[in-house]
User: What shape does this take?
Amino acid sequence: MSLITRNNYEAYLLDYVEETLSPELVAELMLFLEQHLDLKEVLEDFEIHTLVPKETVAFDKSALKKEAGLITLVNYEDFIIAEVEGINTPEKSTALYLFLEQNPEKQEEFVTYQKTTLVAPTIIFEGKKSLKKKEGVIVPMYWWYSSAAAVVIILFSLNMFNRNEQVYFPIADREEVNFKNDAFEESVIKDKIILEEKLPTVEEIARSDKKPKNKLEKNLKKNTLNSLPVKEEVKGLTQYTNIPKEKIKIESDTAVIQNQNQKRSITIEEENLYAENNVIITYEDEILDNGTLNLVKRKMTKLELVRAAVKHQMNGNLDKGKEKILFALNSKPLNFLKKRNRKE
Amino acid sequence: MTVTEYNDSVDQFSDNLYRFVLKNIKDSDKAKDIVQDTYLKFWEKKDSVDVKKIKPYLFTTAYHTLIDVVRREKKQGSFDDVKEESYSTKAEYSDLQEILHKAIEQLPEDQKAVILLRDYEGYAYDEIAEITKMTESQVKVYIFRGRKFLKNYLGSVEALI
Assistant: This one.
């Protein structure tokens, strides 16, 4: 059976025209074409349409070729730029100046190239302070717990000793209050803290003979002296007794303070939280002074920071006292209160 | 790297970095952001950066952040609309420098960046190549093309005068 068919004869024709077909296949192709006379024209077309280059095209290779060290009218700009860039060897520099002497019309171009070097303007970046990092040890703080506790204790200290009614948490009741505390990064806050200084506890203030340092201490001393429990070890439990030796009842881990007409429970956990939060924070605050940012050292107790936060939040001016709010809100004290409120 | 060394790098290089970025994007707010980002990345990597290579590291980081911003802006179609604001500068150009700085704004981003690195910071070709992640010959080509453009621009302006 013949290899060549009507389906594949073009491939054999092409090989035949390009003279790559073996003699046996040439013979077979001829036989095939004799048997299929209608396809003979195709072979003739192949022969007619073969392209033959009629003329040779000359390419100017001189533009691509390099001549070592030789400056020409084609490449002189490269040498000029290299001179301006300061990367010419002494030999090339000499050759360039020689070229320019011989071609004075190019000297103006050389002068123009020399002018293309930019002179750096003096521009000051004004945010350097914000980029810098503080040196020294940063005191770690546990804001979630400590500042939340601060709010609780403030409200206790203001309300618990002289009031008969239930302690009222006005902020906690306002579910619509929305603190944007997520916007503050803890690292930013930590970087601003310089010093953490522990203050005396309620008990220590009350017992101390020293004059109160601030209003908070004064209030605490005044309120606490009348009702301060005295710790006594009884049957393995910590028992609290008032100074006038008035007996108190122990309920689980809760100490009950008898204070004239008032009966109010303080958990030991709350007392501990107060102790943790009765701390002065020294931190750096940014203030604008004649349009310039200045860092100033400020001191506040954690309790005062939380108070400031509450005050500014309620007044709706969060930008005011931003640093204080930044400190306080990051601790999510009101979230703490909200949770507490929900539980109740 | 110590905190002192890091802070020194802020004093030494932030102005140059800001100038380089600002001249590339013509937007002071974005330039400040890029400098901030650059130093933030530097702080995170401070222990792995060779003290002798702080400046190239900063310029490399700033350049690539800049390219990202420019590409993003172009994609959003707003980069060309950014107004040429009168950014804070104490520069007082001579007439020639003013013309040159106008001319450089018209260069393609790549050519502009390499010329600024070359002229403002005095970087060598290999250093520019390292910063921009181009080959050294690419850097040379861009600088040569940029210079030719600037020379032609100056020539045309002088012809008008």
